[in-house]
Design goal:
By secondary structure, the chain is mainly alpha-helical. Helices cover about 60% and strands about 10% of the residues. The protein contains 6 helices and 3 strands. The protein has a 3-stranded parallel β-sheet, sandwiched between helices. Helix 4 packs parallel to helix 6. The protein starts with a strand and ends with a helix.
């Protein structure tokens, strides 16, 4: 039996993590959060000091780590994923727009990085 993966998309503080925690109290479900890094917790780095490519790479690193965890999880269970690709794309694009960076080329870079991840 293959695993089933549900991605919960949405803005901060809408209840994604709370719902995931409640659903993962069941032995059939496992919750996979994105996590964070020291750099991503630093507002100045996120919005001012990082290059767009550094920011994308930092987030893709977390996605890669999470994907490996999901792949190592038992195939007969349900995987609940906090913050899917759509949420991550939206957050990155919003950050770039706030910084005055046109995201067209950056979108191509994000898609290329994620495609590499998905093709693994």
């Amino acid at each position: 039996m293959n695993s089933v993966i549900f991605c919960f998309e949405g803005a901060n503080d809408v209840g994604k993590s709370t719902l995931l925690k409640k659903l993962s109290n069941n032995s059939l479900c496992q919750n996979f959060e994105l996590g964070t890094t020291e750099k991503l917790q630093d507002y100045e780095w996120w919005f001012h000091n990082s290059s767009p490519y550094e920011l994308i790479d930092e987030i893709i690193g977390l996605v890669t780590k999470r994907e490996k965890e999901i792949c190592s999880f038992c195939e007969s269970k349900v995987c609940l994923v906090d913050k899917g690709y759509m949420t991550l794309f939206s957050r990155l694009k919003a950050t770039f727009l706030l910084r005055g960076i046109v995201p067209n080329e950056l979108s191509k870079y994000m898609v290329m990085k994620l495609k590499t991840l998905i093709d693994r």
